[in-house]
Structures are given as structure tokens and as C-alpha cells.
Amino acid sequence: MAAMLLTACEKGLVDGVADVAPAGQAANSVLQVRTRSGGSVGGEATVAYPIAVYVFAGEECKAVQTIGDEGQTLNIGLTEGTYTVYAIGGASSSDYVLPTADDALATSAIVLKDGKTHGDLMAAQATATLVDGGTNTVTLGMTRKTMLIQSVVVKKVPTAATAVSVTIAPLWQALTVGGTFSGVSGSQTIALTKQSDGRTWTLAGESGEHVLSPSSQPASVSVNITIGGATKTYTYSCSDQLEAGYKINIDGTYTEAVGVNLTGTITGATWLGERTISFEFDESGSSASEPNNPSDPSEPSEPSSDFPAVGDTYQGCYVLAVSTIDETSAELTLLSPNEQAATTTGNADAALAALGAVGISDWAVPTKAQMQLVEAKLLSDDASLSGMKYLYRKSNDGLGYRALGAAETAWPTANTTDSYRLRPVAVVSITKD
Predict the structure, then answer these.
(1) DSSP string spanning 309-378?
(2) pLDDT at 192 over 80
(3) Rounded to the nearest 5°, which phi and psi values hold at 11?
(4) Interior/surface letters 191-213, b for 16+ CB within 10 angstroms, e for the rest
């Protein structure tokens, strides 16, 4: 009877146990692995599943198991000895390339698959010593390894913008099995979506986007705005540290006088507590290159208390038109002080960035309506330009030319073998105090 009872007890101990003992050795001990959150604030702490569990004896990986959900506990059969247990939460095999037991090291990277974005990655580590016939239960407290970009809102973007995104760098490129990081030059770009008002761009979805923590401080945030096929990037250095385990909300307003002004808050999530960090950015952080012919530095860089009028100079550019949006904001149509030869099949679009003026980013080939304003301005300044051919963009996005001073009906399609002049325009938004 005693023998039967002993046999029954042994079966109960090893039933459901994954036996990963080396070949020729019987598993005589059980390592039981459970997980918990690493503390909470307001009951918000969670554990990200699935969890990949790596068991090492020294530098050799002995087992890789997965905890699929909150109710699961791993029971791993091993021989007696001391083991190091690593756990990576939120690393699904559908999104990441996970090292196997045959090739895993503590320094092996958990690599994100092409086309995938990071989840809520967490990590934990513990040491367990197993004795012959014993069971050692290890409870792993998970620590978050990502930041959550919870919301991004950029307001008053010029209506001509075709794309807006935010880039954060430098970031770690990958999380390792051991819960450390590898690769110091990573970055993550988050595309924004235009809203119904045509001037507000936001992060799509309600769940936000996870990014690995910065590989060095201070981290930088860049705002990328694409207009007319050209992208201008404003890069700013954060005065406060961005860290894993924090939620980040970015709220920005585009104003032409200073580029992009951004204010943001970082709110501590779950076990890290609560704190708020505010930061501001201005045009001095822009990474855009200077144009070949910068505007006269003596020109005022700030708008006056009233909106500029047609015929005024704004940031070194001639004001062709003014459209008031409300009491504090307006859109200006500006004419660049620079021009050069361009052909319809050659460098018209490519030349735009070089023909701009300092602090203005929206340069484009004039539309037909804008070309009429340009023509009036150019001929009033220099009557000898009459007959000179200038490019404009037709409603079907093709290019045509305007021979200055020609009959009103003469708006032909451009001859691609000829050379034309290009004087770009920009529509910018300004806000007065």
C-alpha cells in the first residue's frame, strides 16, 4: 500500500510537466514559473502575453517554453542545479523572430519582423536552485521595456500638406533574451492621419504605438511635413528624459513664424508612478537645409500684431494674397524671391527646396490662379520680362507655361524641350498674439 501511495504522489508531481532534461538524464526536479506585474498604480498594472520563458544553466539554454495567458503556469522538468530564468512578455512569434533553445544566448536579440510594430514588451529575470526531487516555484515580476506614444496631434498644418509624421530617435533597436537592449541607432516613425478639417493630423487608432526606450539621452523628436513632394523635417532635443514605462502625449501647433511649436506631457504608467514632463520646440531645431539664396536677414522674422497685407514682405517673401481664417489666424500666399531655369521633364519639382526662403517650407509650382498673381507682380517690377515663359501647375497636375504679358487665352501645354523659368509660391499659416 505504501508503495502504491508513493507511486501516486510521484505521478501527481510530474503530470503536465515539460521534461527538458538532457538526453540520458532523468528529470528529478520541477521548476514552476509564474508571472505577475511589477507593481501597480490605481490597479492599472498588466502583464503582456504571450510570455517566452528561457531557462539557462550557466550560458547554455536548457529550455524555451511559452506562457500563453494569465491562467497558465509552467512546470519544467530539470535535473538538480542552479538556473537563470528569463522571461520576455508581449513577444508573439507572429511579430518577432524568437531565438530557439539551440541557439539562444542571454544576449540574443528578439528581432521584430518586417512590417510589424512593437507590442507592449516586458522582461523579467530570476535565479532558481533545484534539489533532487524538489519543486522550486519562481514568480517573475515583469518590467515594461517600451514607451507608449499614446496620442499625437499636430494642428494648423497647411492644407497643401500631403503627409505628416513624427520620428523618435535614437532608440534601442532590439530587446534581448536577458532583458537588456542591443543596437544604439534605432528610430521609429509614426505616420499621422489628416482629419476632416484638413489642417489637423493625428495618430490613428485609440491604442497608441509602443516604441523601445531611447539608447541615449537626450532623445529627439522630429516632425516631418511633406508639401509638393518635398519634406521638411524639424528635429528637436528633449530637455527631459524619455523612459520606458511612460505614456507620451504630443500636442503640436504649426506656425510659419517659428516652424512647429510642440508641447507634450509624459505621464507615468502603472508601476512607475505619476509624473508630468513638458517640453517646447521651435524653428531653431529645424534640420532643413538653407536655400541657395537666403532672404535678406534684415527682413523681420516675426509677423506684426496685425496680419500682413498684399504687397507686404513676410520672411523675405512677397505677399501675393491673404485669406483670414479667424481673428487670430490667416493663410498667406507668398512668392519666393528666388527663381531659376527648369524644364517640365527635368528639375521643376526637385528645384523647389533650393528656391525657397529661410523659415518657409511649403514651396510649390504655382497653380494657374496663383500664376496670374505672380505675373502681375513680376511685370510690375520689371516690364522687360514680358514674353518670358514661367511654369505653372495645371488642374490635372501636369505642367504648363505662362508667357508673361501674353493674351489671356494663351495658357498652352509646356514644350518639354524648351527651358522655362520657375518662381515657386507657398501657402503658409500664421497666428498673431
Answers:
(1) -TT-EETTEEEEEEEE-SSSEEEEEEE-S--EEE-TTTTTTTTTGGG--TT----BPPBHHHHHHHHHHH
(2) yes
(3) -65, -40
(4) ebebeeeebbbebeeeebbbbbb
User: Letter for the amino acid at 216?
Assistant: S
What CA dihedral angle connects 204, 208, 213 and 215, to 10 degrees?
A: 0
Q: 394: which DSSP letter?
A: -
CA–CA distance from 192 to each of 205, 221, 266 (Å)?
10, 14, 19
3-state secondary structure of 17: coil
**What is the torsion angle, in degrees rounded to the nearest 10, for the CA atoms of residue 422, residue 423, residue 429 and residue 430?**
160
pTM over 0.70: no
Q: Are 157 and 254 in contact (CB under 8 A)?
A: yes
How long, in residues, is the chain? 433
SS3 214: strand
Output the nine-digit C-alpha cell for 176: 534581448
Pairing of strands 81-89, 51-57: antiparallel
Contact indicator for 209, 112 with CB cutoff of 8 Å? no
* Stretch (H or E) spanning 258: none
d(CA 60, CA 65): 15
What are the Cα distances from residue 43, in Å, to 35, 37, 39, 194? Answer: 16, 10, 9, 35
Q: Which residue has the higher pLDDT, 44 or 187?
A: 187
User: Which set of grid coordinates corresponds to residue 119?
Assistant: 507590442
- Angstrom distance (rounded) from CA 172 to CA 182: 6
Give CA–CA dist 290/355, Å, rounded: 10
Indicate the residue type of 10. Answer: E
Q: What's the pLDDT tens digit per position in 97-131?
A: 999 999 999 999 999 998 898 998 999 888 888 88
Residues of the chain with pLDDT > 90: what percent? 13
Q: Are the CB atoms for 265 and 252 separated by under 8 Å?
A: no
Nearest-angstrom CA–CA distance, 351 and 353: 6
Chain centroid to CA 387: 48
- Kindly report, residue by residue over 37-64, the tens digit of the pLDDT: 544 334 455 788 899 999 999 999 998 9
How far apart CA 47 and CA 387 sit, in angstroms, is 72
CA distance 262 to 257: 14
